[in-house]
Amino acid sequence: MWIRRDWHQFYIETNKHWERLRPPRPVQRTERSRLAPAQGFSVRELDDAGITLDRAERLGLPVDMGRHCAYAPNVDMLRVFARATRRFGQ
Q1: Local structure of 36: helix, strand or coil
Q2: Count of other CB atoms within 10 angstroms of residue 46
Q3: Is the pTM of this model over 0.85?
Q4: Other beta carbons less than 10 A from residue 44's beta carbon
Q5: pLDDT per position in the chain (90 positions), as tens?
Q6: What is the C-alpha to C-alpha distance for residues 90 and 86, in angstroms, rounded to an integer?
Q7: 35-37/27-29 β-pairing
Q8: φ and ψ at 35, to 5 degrees?
Q9: Any idea where the domains of the chain sit in the sequence?
Q10: Is the dihedral of CA 38, 39, 42, 46 positive or negative?
């Protein structure tokens, strides 16, 4: 039987794996050159990162069809996330 410390350690280890594979949050620039959270990634950002709409849906990435611009840090985050998910077989 596990004691409380064992369960605590188990949950810490399982959450570490999830933290690495959690989908990134999209951001966009506002008119004052500040960053604000966006509803989802634009189709152009997904295309620049090499991710199809079907794969984005499987990975749980939010997609905003109304956005038309591509923000470079979002594309970089998507590329890193796509490489990480390929490595873990998702």
Answers
A1: strand
A2: 22
A3: no
A4: 15
A5: 667 777 787 777 766 655 556 788 898 888 888 888 899 999 999 999 999 999 999 888 999 999 988 999 999 999 999 888 876 555
A6: 6
A7: antiparallel
A8: -95, 140
A9: 41-90
A10: positive
Tokens of 38: 């966006």
The Cα 34–Cα 55 span in angstroms is 30
User: How distant, in Å, are the alpha carbons of 11, 32, 42, 78 from that of 72?
Assistant: 35, 18, 12, 10
Q: How far apart are CA 10 and CA 21, in angstroms?
A: 18
Residues 60 and 19: beta-carbon distance below 8 Å: no
pLDDT of residue 65: 92
Going 58 to 63 to 68 to 73, the CA torsion angle's sign is negative
- pLDDT given at position 34: 87
